[in-house]
Input
Amino acid sequence: MWVTPAVRDRVTAALPLPLGHPGEPLPEGTKTLVVVGGGTLIDAAKALRVDRRLHVRLIVIPSIWGSGAEISPVAVQNQDGKKTIRVGPELLPDVRVAWPELAQTLSSDLARDACGDVWAHALEGFLSPLANDELRTIGGHLIGDLTKARIGNAPGWFELSAAACALQAHASVGLVHGIAHTLEGPLAGGSPTGRFGHAGLCARMLWPAMRFNLSRSEKLRSIFDEVGLDVETVFAAIAGLYDEAVYDILLPSLVARWRDVLRDPCTRTNVALVRPGDVSFFVEKAFR
Amino acid sequence: MSNREKLQAMLVSVFLLEESEFSFARQRGEVDTWDSLGVVALAVGIEESFGYHCRPEEANALRSFQDVLELLERKGISFVE
Output
């Protein structure tokens, strides 16, 4: 069993299984690997099983919502400071277990960031040019549910997270994830706030980036209209994720790496909207 | 700005090139961002910059920046300086 340190005591007390670590080989004869943790740990297990052609059953228990790694056929890995994204049905875990009590001790900041990650998956999947009418209908219901959910620590976010991840896995993500994937490596070590991980960046950049998308395409507004969603209600729900002080800290990095953001595969699904000169929208805070 | 300069600026923007990387002789295979998403971006860029709605088969058939220029010339846009 692999367990993330934040919940190790609680998990090992309830599940007395032999402990391992992603850096170590699995013991000879291992038939089942239980992974309890966040998206990074779960994705490491998914990738390991495929790369080493291991015939082990993979049971995953998310300790936090947001990534949706527990239900997605995607594995995101950080190699030499660069994100690589792999997709394939062979990456899907065999069993997902819900244990929402593991998140009870999450800090309010982490919980808020995780909610931002869920929102980013839902909105970018819903607005993706790769989403068909059926996905838009499903996404519309999900976003309606999200607007009613309180941002913060609540067990209901695990299921919302799984639904949002499933939506984006069938469509794509976009600029918000392009920004997060580009900046999270460079900012991970030097962040004065410690909140520039993937979820934190998605949360902070979601509202500005969605305002940007809306400013560039009238079609986006009509996509919301078609499923009976009020754009302003949705945007009001995500505006609380924005934090100007944090945004000001990360803005210089966004400007310096804008070209890398544009070349990120996630951003490029919005290729018709996002251009080199558009960084001025973020510098001038035209989203306010 | 002449139409030639406008086209160059559009192609540099759409394909995320440095100015120094640009040449009308550039072939599709030499531009890493000229993939299927690049084709979409190019079609949008042509419409935004020159008002011509490129059909998917036209956009897919383009193999060089010179091809883009010649397509627009056939649609009545002059590139004579």
